[in-house]
Amino acid sequence: MLQEILNDVGIAVFAASGALLGVRKDFDLWGILTVGALTGVGGGILRDVLLGITPPTSVQHWLPITITLAASLIVFTFHPTFAQLRRSVLILDAVGMGLFATSGAGIAIDHDTSAFAASIVGLLTAVGGGILRDVLANEIPLLLQPADLYAVPALLGATIVGICGTYTTVPVWFWLIIGTVVATALRLVSLVFGWRLPTAPPGRRGHHARA
């Protein structure tokens, strides 16, 4: 039950981040709804394909798409209340990433995957919708931007659920909460303090590469 709730909240939050990006890019209503919907369910569809769930839950049932459309409409209507659209996108994306990373890993465990597979499925669930959103909006995916951590927090949250949910007797719901908090917090802290992974030395990347 908890991972279903986390999954639905993650869908709503990711859809809102997609819709906000659509607003920032001056999309019309259809474009905003489209990018919001695809952002909200993209990671879940990838997860279900990897786990052999056919048709994917987001296609089989009406609730996921309805959640994305409702969240996108709310953003479309009330976006002027967001003082900083880009900051709002980043915050919502961090929350959605944490929720999807852990719920994806939890659903993988329910389908009898190994702890390693659950961690990878959680990671891909977390980043799938965001990559689709950024590609549709002609943005460099946050996953690939060197300015801050993205995949690492998602993988950490998913791994907490994958390993601890498989090899401990503590209920999985506890690790879902811990993993979500850790992944989201690490992502937000990395944004505040500018934490990042090292990049290749300038001499190896060419003269005009980004430092």
UniProtKB/TrEMBL annotation:
The keyword Transmembrane applies. Pfam families: Gly_transporter. GO terms for cellular component: plasma membrane. The keyword Mitochondrion does not apply. Its main location: membrane. It comes from the Bacteria. The chain crosses the membrane at residues 6-23, 30-53, 59-78, 90-109, 115-136, 148-168, 174-195. It is a multi-pass membrane protein. It is found in: Cell membrane. Keywords: Cell membrane, Membrane, Transmembrane, Transmembrane helix. Residues 5-79, 91-162 form the Glycine transporter domain. Belongs to the UPF0126 family. This is Glycine transporter domain-containing protein. It comes from Gordonia rhizosphera NBRC 16068.
